[in-house]
Design goal:
single chain; Rossmann fold; Beta-Lactamase; five-stranded parallel β-sheet; 24 strands; elongated
Length: 673
């Protein structure tokens, strides 16, 4: 039920209001008045004291109060064509010359005097009362033109007429008031909906963690939320309702508003810190109807990014390695990294092969970080670490009740979690055949169905697989599907074991040594020649074995540098030598070699002598002059021994020539001499 006020100059409206109120159930409160300051005061009282939701007023009173009443809508009480016809019929019984004095009005759909005049061929004149100050002038004109009858709803006109001039007052009927009440109720309901929508939008805007400013098409501030107040230190009470032209004197507002055009992620530096500004013009059709400005502190964005990264990191969905983190300077590794970087640009599936510990996941993470999926998650799963039933639910997810112990609400699979990112399937050669067929369908259709579910879920992933098995042999044994192999082996990377590029062993050892020192919070140095000694061992466990070796050395090292004896002992343990021979080298006047100690394997005298020459060559980087001085050998003797070693003896690790690159050059020089 609505509470509606009515202001009228005719007492009979009170009776009409009672009847309409009884029929509609709305509460109608009537105040009598004329179109002057008194009507304005009555309108204010209806708002403040009677708490009405709308005001109805006829003609002149409507024009008087419509622009001063701003809290509630004002509805015009209109006449109908039927009431006008009744009055005209009566007027032409009283005289032949009739004038109709009407109020100024907007276009109305209720009655139309010109239409009535044209259809019924009534010969009437019409005058318009635009303002109460025009009353005397209109009355004077009526007398001058000697009209017989004047028709009007304005008492101010009719009260000034003389007895010889007939006057007919146009009165409102119940239907007129009922129509006005219906319009008022509709306007009230529309206003309530608009207010509800405005409150809802205001609540939404206030819930944003970023500052929000909105301007209408005239540049007037409509919204300034709490986050904007916190960021700028300014109050919404001082800004809302003001035009931007008034506010541009404020340097902060001027900087934020800019030129008023659209902008994306614009960074501005202020005394309070850096802000990120986004300006979004609002268009309806081709016309700009407003502007939305979003502001955020850079520190807030950074904190949010760190929080997100931390959560993802806790879930293991972030790739931490890039190509720059992969140690190795050999031609083999450089070419391998260049190939992987080219593959990263592509969206095709990749198969990475190599022995255990060669760094397959490092390459997978680097490819992800170098690809267009780098902003998405990196999800890694070891296909050999989980039993078949668990692996299936982890990969594809499950619905609630899919099996005993299923989580309430179900669980998304790793393919879903890796959407718009990369999924790394490590040890894919160990995946059961039954799951290989399901995986093949996901790769072909790019969609998954959870266990126990029926909904098809589209996924977009970059697939990288890895294995240490020969999949061609697995296919021959019937343990790996050929169609799956062809689907995952679009781009292939084979990472060779360390024994095939031993020159990278010292580089990798040094990188792992530095990393372990940081992890263990130690500051320990290691000599370059010790790292070179690591090339003697083939490292079948590759980088993983070197990592364990480095960690073992650091665990037993107490000083600021690795002791030679400790290094030799740990390396001997890796090589499996039960009785290493550590003998003294009687140094010549040149500097001693690692405190005068060498580690050599037991063997024939010739083998041990060759080993001594080889180690000294490594220590002095192939400088034969230093070898001659250190071992007291002549040029001819050294040349002969090196030539014999180059022809028949390999390094203790079993790879490459016994003579370092510089040594070979020297041999050729001696040979030509």
């Amino acid at each position: 039920m609505a509470r509606i006020g009515i202001i009228s100059h005719t007492p009979h409206v009170i009776t009409l209001a009672r009847e309409v109120s009884a029929e509609t159930g709305h509460e109608l409160i009537v105040k009598l008045g004329i179109p002057n300051h008194e009507a304005i005061q009555k309108a204010y009282r209806l708002q403040r004291e009677e708490q009405v939701s709308a005001i109805i007023a006829p003609g002149a009173i409507f024009e008087t109060i419509r622009d001063v009443v701003i809290d509630v809508p004002v509805i015009r009480l209109e006449l109908t064509n039927f009431e006008l016809l009744k009055a005209l019929h009566q007027a032409f019984k009283l005289g032949k010359k009739v004038v109709f004095v009407d109020f100024k009005r907007d276009v109305t759909k209720i009655y139309d005097p010109e239409l009535v005049k044209r259809i019924f061929e009534y010969d009437i004149d019409r005058m318009t009362l635009n303002d109460p100050s025009e009353v005397e002038g209109i009355v004077k004109t009526i007398f001058e033109k000697k009209y017989d009858v004047v028709m009007s709803a304005a008492r101010c006109i009719l009260d000034l007429t003389t007895p010889r001039l007939h006057s007919i007052e146009l009165t409102y009927c119940k239907a007129d008031l009922a129509a006005a009440v219906e319009q008022a109720v509709h306007t009230i309901e529309t206003g309530h909906k608009e207010k509800e929508k405005l409150r809802w939008m205001q609540t939404v805007v206030e819930s944003f963690q970023e500052g929000m400013l909105t301007f209408d098409k005239t540049g007037t501030v409509e919204t300034f939320n709490a986050a904007a107040e916190e960021i700028t230190g300014m109050s919404a009470d001082h800004l809302v309702g003001k035009n931007i032209q008034e506010l541009l004197q404020n340097d902060l507002i001027s900087t934020i508003y800019g030129d008023g055009n659209g902008a994306t992620d614009e960074v501005i530096a202020l005394d309070m810190g850096k802000l990120v500004i986004n300006r979004i013009p609002i268009y309806i059709g081709s016309e700009q109807r407003g502007l939305v400005i979003k502001i955020q502190k850079v520190t807030k964005i950074q904190a949010l990014e760190q929080a997100i990264r931390k959560r993802l990191l806790n879930k293991g969905f972030v790739a931490k390695t890039t190509f720059a983190d992969i140690a190795g300077k050999s031609i083999v590794m450089c070419e391998l990294k260049m190939t992987a970087q080219k593959y990263a640009v592509s969206c095709s599936n990749i198969l990475i092969t190599g022995e255990s510990g060669t760094g397959k996941e490092l390459f997978a993470q680097s490819i992800h970080n170098g690809s267009s999926c780098s902003r998405g998650p990196f999800v890694a799963v070891n296909c050999a670490a989980l039993p078949e039933s668990l692996l299936e639910s982890e990969l594809f997810g499950y619905e609630e009740g899919a099996f005993t112990g299923a989580r309430k609400g179900g669980k998304p699979g790793l393919f879903e979690l890796a959407h718009n990112g990369t999924i790394f399937l490590d040890e894919i050669g160990d995946m059961p055949l039954s799951l290989q067929s399901r995986l093949l369908r996901v790769l072909q259709e790019k969609e998954v169905i959870r266990l126990g579910g029926s909904q098809v879920i589209p996924v977009h992933n970059r697939i990288i697989c890895a294995t240490n098995k020969h999949l061609s042999q697995e296919m021959e044994k019937g343990l790996f599907r050929k169609d799956l192999y062809y689907r995952i082996n679009i781009l292939q990377i084979h990472i060779p074991p360390l024994r095939e590029h031993p020159e990278d062993i010292p580089v990798l050892g040094h990188a792992l040594f530095d990393r372990k020192c940081r992890d263990m919070k130690k500051e320990v140095g290691i000599q370059h020649n010790m790292l070179n000694m690591m090339k003697r061992y083939p490292w079948p466990g590759n980088a993983r074995e070197i990592e364990a070796f480095v960690e073992r050395i650091l665990a037993v090292t107490e000083g600021a540098k690795v002791e030679y004896d400790i290094f030799v002992k740990c390396l001997s343990h890796m090589e499996g030598i039960s009785k290493p021979f550590v003998g003294s080298v009687h140094a010549t006047p040149s500097p001693p070699l690692d405190n005068g100690k060498l580690l050599i394997k037991l063997g024939t005298l010739t083998e041990m002598e060759n080993e001594i020459i080889h180690q000294v060559l490594n220590h002095v980087d192939g400088d034969k002059d230093k070898v001659e001085k250190t071992l007291g050998l002549s040029k001819t003797t050294l040349w002969r021994r090196l030539k014999s070693m180059d022809r028949s003896i390999n390094v203790a690790s079993g790879f490459g020539s016994a003579i370092p690159p510089r040594s070979k050059t020297a041999v050729r020089k001696y040979g030509n001499a």
